[in-house]
Design a protein that fits this description.
Length: 378
C-alpha cells in the first residue's frame, strides 16, 4: 500500500493506493493541486503515474542497436528515473543491422527483466526518412513498404513508425500502415506544410521530436513544424530545454492539445561525460548534451523525472498537467488504457516523489525498483 497525495485522472486524493501487479483500490479525500503541493511541502509524498517514454535509444552506457542484454540494462536505467514503460527506438542503418537489433530486443520485450521498465515494443525511427533531415541518423535512408515493416514486426513488435511523408509512395504507405494497426509519426522530414497536412489526412497521428530534424516554420512556408502547430492533436517533444527553447515549447503547448514528452535518450543518459555509441556513431556527452563530432545534437541525456521537473519548474505547467504529458498521453497514443494513469484495474506503474519532484521510488507492474534522490529540487 502507498500512502500520500495520489494523482488520479480526476485530480489529487489524499489517501492510499492498494496494489499487487495492478491497482486494486484508491481511497481518500480529494484535494486541489495547491493544497496537494502544500501538503507535499510539509512532508507527504506525491504518488504519480509512472512515466511512459516512446523514444529511447539508450541509457546507462548501453545502446538499443547493440546485441546481448543491452536493452535490459537500458530498461533498468530508465526505471531508476521513474520510467515504467518505454519503446526501444532504432537508428537508421542497413536492414541487416536493424534486424539484428530487433532480434536482440525481442526476449526483453516478451519478458520484462527484473527491476526494469516494461519494454512495450519498438519505435522504428528510420530508415524511411529524408537524408536532407538526418539529424544524427546515419545515411542509410530508403523508401519504405508495408512488407518491410511487417517483416520487421515478425522479429519484434513494431508499435510506432517514424517516416518522412514526402518520399515517393509514403502517403500510400501511411494508409497501409494504419490499416495494418501501426501508429505512424512524421519526422526527419523536409516536407512542405501541404505534404504534412496530407499525411495527417492519410492517418499519421503524431510528429517525432517536434521542431527537430524537420522543415521549420516560416510565415510564408510553414513547413512540417507549421503543419503540426496548425493541425496536430498529438506530437512528441524533447523537454531538455536544449533541443527546444522554452518559448517554442510554450507555443507548442498552446497549439497542440496532447503534446507529450519523450527523452530521445542515448547511452549517455545516466552516465558521466565522455564518448558513447549511438548506432554506428560515436557521440560525445558534455555540458548536459550529446553531440556528434561536428556539433550536431545526437539525442539527449534526459530522463523522464527531469522532464517532469523541467515542465513544472522551468516551463510553469501545473503538476497534474505535466504528469499527464509524461505518462497518460503517450499511453493513449499507443492505445493502452491500463498504463500511464492511476485508476483501479490499471497496471501498478507508480512513482513516488517529494515536494521537489525528486524520485523516491518506482513500482513497475507492482514491483519496487530501488530508486535514488536524483536531480536538483526546483
Amino acid at each position: 500500500m502507498l500512502e500520500g497525495l495520489v494523482l488520479t485522472p480526476a485530480g489529487f486524493v489524499h489517501g492510499t493506493l492498494e496494489h499487487d501487479t495492478r491497482i486494486r483500490r484508491i481511497q481518500g479525500k480529494p484535494v486541489d493541486e495547491p493544497e496537494a503541493r502544500r501538503r507535499a511541502a510539509a512532508g507527504l509524498p506525491l504518488i504519480l503515474p509512472g512515466f511512459v517514454d516512446l523514444h529511447v535509444h539508450g541509457g546507462g552506457g548501453h545502446d538499443t542497436m547493440a546485441a546481448g542484454d543491452a536493452l535490459a540494462q537500458i530498461a533498468r536505467t530508465h526505471a531508476r528515473h521513474g520510467t515504467t514503460a518505454l519503446l526501444a527506438t532504432t537508428m537508421t542503418a542497413p536492414l541487416a543491422e536493424i534486424e539484428a537489433a530487433l532480434a536482440a530486443a525481442a526476449p526483453c520485450i516478451a519478458t520484462r527483466p527484473a527491476h526494469a521498465a516494461r519494454v512495450l515494443g519498438v519505435h522504428l525511427e528510420g530508415p524511411f526518412i529524408n537524408r536532407e533531415k538526418l539529424g544524427a541518423q546515419p545515411d542509410f535512408t530508403a523508401a519504405g513498404t508495408l512488407e518491410q515493416v511487417r517483416a520487421l514486426d515478425r522479429i519484434a513488435p513494431i508499435r510506432l513508425v517514424t517516416l518522412a511523408p514526402e518520399l515517393p509512395g509514403h502517403i500510400e504507405l501511411i494508409v497501409a500502415l494504419r490499416a495494418a494497426g501501426f501508429v505512424v509519426q512524421l519526422g526527419h522530414s523536409a516536407a512542405s506544410y501541404e505534404q504534412g497536412v496530407a499525411a495527417l489526412a492519410a492517418g499519421a497521428s503524431g510528429f517525432t521530436h517536434l521542431f527537430n530534424a524537420m522543415s521549420a516554420l516560416h510565415h510564408r512556408a510553414p513547413g512540417l513544424a507549421g503543419a503540426a502547430l496548425a493541425h496536430a492533436v498529438r506530437a512528441e517533444v524533447i523537454p531538455d530545454l536544449l533541443h527546444v527553447h522554452p518559448g517554442a515549447l510554450r507555443a507548442a503547448l498552446r497549439a497542440i492539445p496532447e503534446l507529450y514528452c519523450v527523452t530521445d535518450s542515448t547511452a549517455a543518459a545516466g552516465m558521466p561525460d565522455g564518448e558513447y555509441r549511438l548506432g554506428r556513431h560515436v557521440v560525445h556527452k558534455c555540458l548536459g548534451g550529446v553531440r556528434l563530432a561536428d556539433g550536431t545534437l545526437a539525442g539527449s541525456t534526459l530522463t523522464m523525472d527531469q522532464a517532469l521537473r523541467n515542465l513544472v519548474f522551468e516551463v510553469g505547467l501545473p503538476l497534474a498537467d505535466a504528469a499527464r504529458r509524461c505518462s497518460t498521453i503517450a499511453a493513449d497514443h499507443l492505445g493502452l488504457p491500463d498504463r500511464g494513469r492511476l485508476v483501479e484495474g490499471a497496471w501498478a506503474d507508480v512513482v513516488r516523489l517529494d515536494a521537489g519532484l525528486r524520485l523516491e521510488g518506482t513500482w513497475v507492474e507492482g514491483e519496487r525498483v530501488d530508486g535514488e534522490h536524483i536531480g536538483p529540487a526546483g
